[in-house]
Amino acid sequence: MAGAAAKRLARLGVEVLTETKVEQVDAHGVVISGQRIESASVLWTAGVAPAPVLAELHTQTDRAGRICVLPSMEVPERPGIFVVGDAAALSQDGRPLPGVAQVAIQQGRYVGRLIRARIEGRTVTRPFRYFDKGNMAVVGRNFALLESGRLRMSGYLTWLIWGTHPSAVSATASRAGCALRAMAVVVSDRSAQLPARPGSAARQWL
User: Does pTM surpass 0.70?
Assistant: First the structure.
């Protein structure tokens, strides 16, 4: 899916830079791996930091500062205290669950049912398990990508599916940005009328 998205962006005139370190951001653009990119608009999407209040739990965290929770979404040695969403670190099938809305929604529903069961005196032993409904991303006009299990689709037909099934969009839209596995997004705004480098064509960066 990432490769197909990159190819589509290239056709739209967007240059994709991966495995590249952003060294400086200022009012006139950015410096990436020693190269200056002039831009009036810089969009920075470097991830989400856990809330500082989590440190008050004084329990184990991962490298990102998220709480390492039990399969019941509870904090170890603190029964009745739950952490969900991008504040929680939990692995499934040997891989950490991503901090996206779909995971958080399912975790919240699981914890809600678990708390209700305990109030009613019932015992719940089933651990939380995330059901991946797939990823969808729209890239430009009349083009979308869909990834769900072994299913891979892209193109105009996939865009029609996206446009006619709002439920599919709400279930997957927040993961669209993962298509390129990008840590930073830099957009050069042509409307800023910045001075062009001699002999170079206008460029867009993502």
Answer: no
